[in-house]
């Protein structure tokens, strides 16, 4: 009967020659196995690529995987107790290998059997080896602990390892689905089957755990599979999976037994709209968010002509009051130019709306248009440049606006519970026109920035393939119910 020390010494195959953070170089002993190791419980191939070796340390052993094997020329190993003066010192072949650290195999005493050690694999290396440390072959129990990951209780079995006595290969769903994961392999090696199996096996394991806890209902899990080649169309029929056709066409989807993919644009939030349109910060993005908020709040789609005019005139009046309170806005450049452009917009807008309103309101609008046009005529030279405005003439215009607003009555305000992220249905085709209208009301200098954005939106909305997805003719239904939204009660 051999002792524990003798068992360990029989597993030694080499010595560490150099240490780096990502790899260790190992000099194999002359009596180390050539092709098959017979001293590690069961016969197995050694040395081989992707094989495992152990380097003992204070807390257990470092687990390393073989990444390179080769023969190099070296001096003949000298033995201090033996000298052969007739030996010619020629290059002597020695075997070396390079191993990469994988983790640490910790040894713990089993609670119900203190005479037995159990092994648990943990990621990372806390104590690196030193030059001269011995390299060992792992036993079959240690190999099982490495392959099985220390016996994960919640692991999902995905296969067995034929090289380690059919050791169970399992993965923890919380770990693999909580990180980035890639399934790699050659063509025809079973990558698609492995992906489908991971999903199936995970759902089955989760359902077993749920039944064990006596919890009712299906597993609360969601998987989104992007399948450009149609490999998974029938893979999850027993799981009640919903299959969508990306083209969005009902006829094409019915032909393959799927549903047309529909993601209406009105359902998007502000971040998705910004990414879809490519709106730049500064001018485009704030105006886009304002347009979305007002369209979703019903500022255009379901408002009467009188309400729309009233809101626009209120906007003009607030801008005019802000300019009056800031002298630099009507005395210095570029405020003078912006004020002149605002007055030109006011004159043109009041002239257009005067023909659409009742007689008394129309006359008031025409009067404001005439006064504003006269102020612009006095301050604008032949070159199109504005001179400084006078506070009194701006206050006269503000007074006329006050008189006009009193004729309209109280001004409706947009709902404060609606913003650009609210999932409220609106006419997406009206978005480009409304954006241009907002830019003209703000400042004519912004029109150039917004025209590019509105043109981009029109192009995207008119695309045939995109339109069937983002602007479907049918109403979107979620779980059999029409998707509605209501603001939270305060």
**What is the share of helical residues?**
25-40%
> Mean pLDDT score, rounded?
79
Backbone structural class: alpha+beta
Which series of helices and strands comes N to C?
HEEEEEEEEEHEEHHEHEHHHHHHHHHHEE
Low-confidence stretches: 299-303, 410-414, 480-490
N-to-C terminal Cα separation, in Å? 81 Å
Number of helical regions: 15
Which geometry do the CA atoms define? Answer: elongated
Beta-strand share of residues: 15-25%
The biggest beta sheet, please? 7 strands, antiparallel
**Gyration radius, rounded:** 39 Å
- Using DSSP, what is the number of strands? 15
Oligomer: single chain
Features:
ATP binding; HerA_central; 15 helices; disordered C terminus; two-stranded antiparallel sheet; alpha+beta; ATP-binding; elongated; 490 residues; HerA-like; nucleotide-binding; seven-stranded antiparallel β-sheet; single chain
Give an overview of the whole structure:
Among the domains are: 4-77 and 90-152, no CATH class; 263-303 and 425-483, no CATH class; 311-411, no CATH class. 38% of the residues lie in helices and 17% in strands. It contains 15 helices and 15 strands. Strands 1, 2, 5, 6, 7, 8 and 9 form a seven-stranded antiparallel β-sheet that branches. Strands 3-4 form a two-stranded antiparallel ribbon. Strands 10-11 form a two-stranded antiparallel ribbon. A hairpin with a 7-residue loop joins strand 7 (92-109) and strand 8 (117-123). Helix 7 (284-296) packs across helix 13. The longest helix is centred in the middle third of the chain and has 22 residues, at 191-212. Residues 299-303, 410-414 and 480-490 have low confidence and may be disordered.
